[in-house]
Write a structure and sequence with these properties.
The complex is a heterodimer.
Chain A lengths: L1 H22 L3 H4 L2 H7 L6 H39 L1
Chain B lengths: L2 H34 L13 H28 L2 H32 L8 H22 L3 H15 L2 H11 L19 H55 L1
Helix pairs in contact in B: 1-7, 2-3, 2-5, 2-7, 3-4, 3-7, 4-5, 4-6
Classes of the chains: A mainly alpha, B mainly alpha.
Chain lengths: 85, 247
């Protein structure tokens, strides 16, 4: 039974997925860095500026937040050490 | 003052000096990124994410390299200081890998039109992040701390195998990720201003890594002292009660 059902299920699944796969946009169709140059339209837009700002803001906040967390942790451990004598 | 106190004071001095230097270098790097480096012709302004994305990846690799070396040393010598350096470097490595994994999609969405692509370099970098998050989970998952340290050290060494795979993935596999621009056998391919800005960013991030490593290492050693004091404090009453029983 397994020998008959499993291949039949796989074939049914492949037939169901095939038309969806054929219509799906591929990565190449979406455009790579090199194909953007061919279009002659560099994506210099408001969205690009927002992404740039978000990247630097995220990095700054993460590093600064980590540094602050380290300092706070240092104070807590030092206080603990003093309390223990 | 004990030798341990002296070494901790030395670590603290180094940490302050390195972090001050990192702040200066980062300021210079930010100035170069926004006022010196030209806007790249193909990708436009979003390409400036490059100056934070690539140095963050470099620092993550450096951090996990340090984890692997110190873990190897710890397994061999059982020196607690090497384990402390490994923990410190792993934490900073996870921090910078997170930056890579967030800034990459922010760049990719504009350049490729997709936030994420399951291609080799991105997938292997995500795997690296999971490995070193697992490093911390593994440390805390065992009943015996010594066993946890040993297991984590093994994972720290095995996980480092992913680093050359990530670096070479754009050459070995069909990849959408751009190839190396500066570290190429035939020399840098980008404009001199771009290369100079990238090198200053590399320097700033490297100094920042060592500054943060010193702070985190000092904290790990302090925490070790607190734990040792706690153990001594918990043993004291039982020793007294035993002597009372004998008396």
């Amino acid at each position: 039974v397994i020998r008959r059902i499993v291949p039949a299920l796989l074939v049914a699944l492949a037939l169901a997925v095939a038309p969806v796969q054929a219509q799906a946009p591929t990565q190449a169709a979406r455009g790579s860095i090199h194909s953007l140059a061919d279009d002659g339209a560099p994506p210099v837009s408001q969205r690009a500026h927002i992404h740039l700002f978000a990247a630097y803001a995220f990095t700054g906040l993460l590093v600064f937040g980590y540094a602050v967390a380290l300092v706070r942790r240092g104070r807590r451990i030092t206080a603990e050490l003093k309390a223990l004598g | 003052m004990t030798t341990d106190d002296n070494s901790l004071a030395g670590t603290r001095r180094w940490a302050i000096a390195l972090n001050a230097l990192a702040a200066l270098a980062l300021t210079a790097s930010l100035y170069m990124v926004f006022f010196y480096a030209p806007t790249e012709a193909e990708m436009g302004v979003v390409q400036r994410i490059f100056y934070v994305h690539v140095p963050s990846a470099w620092v993550a690799f450096l951090a996990f390299g340090v984890v692997a070396l110190c873990s190897l040393g710890y397994l061999w010598l059982r020196d607690e200081r090497l384990d402390a350096i490994s923990v410190a470097a792993a934490e900073i490595g996870v921090l910078f890998t997170t930056i890579v994994l967030v800034t990459g999609p922010l760049w990719g969405k504009i350049a490729w039109g997709a936030w994420w692509v399951w291609e080799p370099r991105l997938t292997l970098t995500l795997l690296l992040w999971f490995i070193y998050v697992g490093y911390f989970i593994l440390r805390g998952a065992t009943e015996s701390p010594e066993r946890g340290k040993r297991f984590a050290a093994i994972l720290g060494i095995v996980g480092a195998v992913d680093i050359p795979l990530i670096h070479m993935s754009v050459t070995w596999f069909r990849s959408q990720h751009p190839e190396a621009v500066v570290l190429r056998p035939d020399g840098p391919r980008a404009a001199p201003e771009i290369v100079q800005t990238l090198l200053v960013s590399f320097l700033a991030f490297t100094i920042l890594f060592f500054g943060l490593l010193m702070v985190r290492y000092g904290l790990e050693r302090l925490q070790h002292s607190v734990d040792a004091q706690r153990v001594r404090a918990s043993l004291r009453p039982s020793v007294r009660s035993k002597s009372e029983v004998v008396a």
